[in-house]
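Hello, quick one for you while I still have it in my head. A protein chain has come my way and I'm curious about its shape. I'm sending you its amino acid sequence along with the backbone structure tokens. I'd be grateful if you could look everything over and explain what you see. Here's the protein in full, and shout if anything looks odd to you:
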Amino acid sequence: MPSPAGDPSRDTIPVHLLLVASPDCHFCLDARAVLQRLGRDYRLHVREVQLSSPEGQDLAARHGIAFPPGLFIEDRFIGFGRVSERKLRRLLEQRLGAAAPGHGQV
């Protein structure tokens, strides 16, 4: 079945996301719901790291994550706090457009 925009590369190219989260964080719950919805339209590989873990603490220190969740696409820091579905969808479209033959990297 072709992807929503008719680009077959959307079905084969996974986009790697990293979510830096904390337990009992309502923004984190919202972010997971956004990622789940977007997973219906995009092939996503989501990895979650707890903010309290050594890796989470390192990422927070290096990228200025003041509170969870922190979000990365393909190792690129996107931001922290409430995840905007519209912004994330736009970033995924840019990423997938850049991955198509004849396009540069984002």
In short: Residues 8-79 form a domain with the Glutaredoxin fold (CATH 3.40.30.10). Residues 101-106 have pLDDT under 50 and may be disordered. The helical segments are 26-38, 54-63, 85-99.
